[in-house]
Amino acid sequence: MSAGGASAVVIGASGGIGAALRDAIADEGAHAVVHALSRSGETPIDIEDEASVAAAAARIAAGPPPALVIVATGLLHDGDRLPEKSYRELDGAWLAKTMAVNAVGPALVAKHLLPLMPKQGRTVFAVLSARIGSISDNRLGGWYGYRMAKAALNQLVRTLSIEEKRRNDRSIVVGLHPGTVDTALSKPFQGNVRPGTLFTPDRAASQLLDVLDGLKVPDSGKLFDFEGNEVAP
């Protein structure tokens, strides 16, 4: 994924997948700078606070333009708050929090970082989404807040791709489904994972970067899994 003198940005770089993506991109050496941003990192960002996102964007704007941006943030559970099994468990505050982290936050990142990306040449803006956000693939029900937020995120990707194409006709805006990765996010649910389908963060990062390398402009606006297969909306 050669980008010459351009930079790369990983939002959520302190998480399992985010940290692995940061390291893999740096190891490739294809970008002049790799900005690794997280809530607790040396370069802080809080995607729930637009002023924080804007400040991070201003710091990035002082260097080479970003040709690759990956938003690797997400919220599935918090403490004893687990995904809802029934509508009887729905809670407005938790739904709003889930939406804020999984959909609104990436939207704010797009608002402030897409204008920094080059207007010519191949650029990639990717967000970590999930197959569970697919409406047509929903056969089990449950997990209301996470499903809703990821469906909203997938719609964001589609809408951004349309507008961004007008600014740069070689831009690619996509969602990525990394599969089940051995991180804190998936920890409570790993007992249900089929053998051989629980990935280490390093393997997940390698697979996702391979998928991004293989994408073409017509792929913009879509969701792809870790094998490069399109996930139905």
From TrEMBL:
Gene3D superfamilies, A to Z: NAD(P)-binding Rossmann-like Domain (3.40.50.720)
Top-level lineage group: Bacteria
SUPFAM superfamilies given in the database record: NAD(P)-binding Rossmann-fold domains
InterPro entries the record matches: Fungal_SecMetab_SDRs (IPR051468), NAD(P)-bd_dom_sf (IPR036291), SDR_fam (IPR002347)
Protein name: SDR family oxidoreductase
Organism whose genome encodes this protein: Sphingomonas insulae
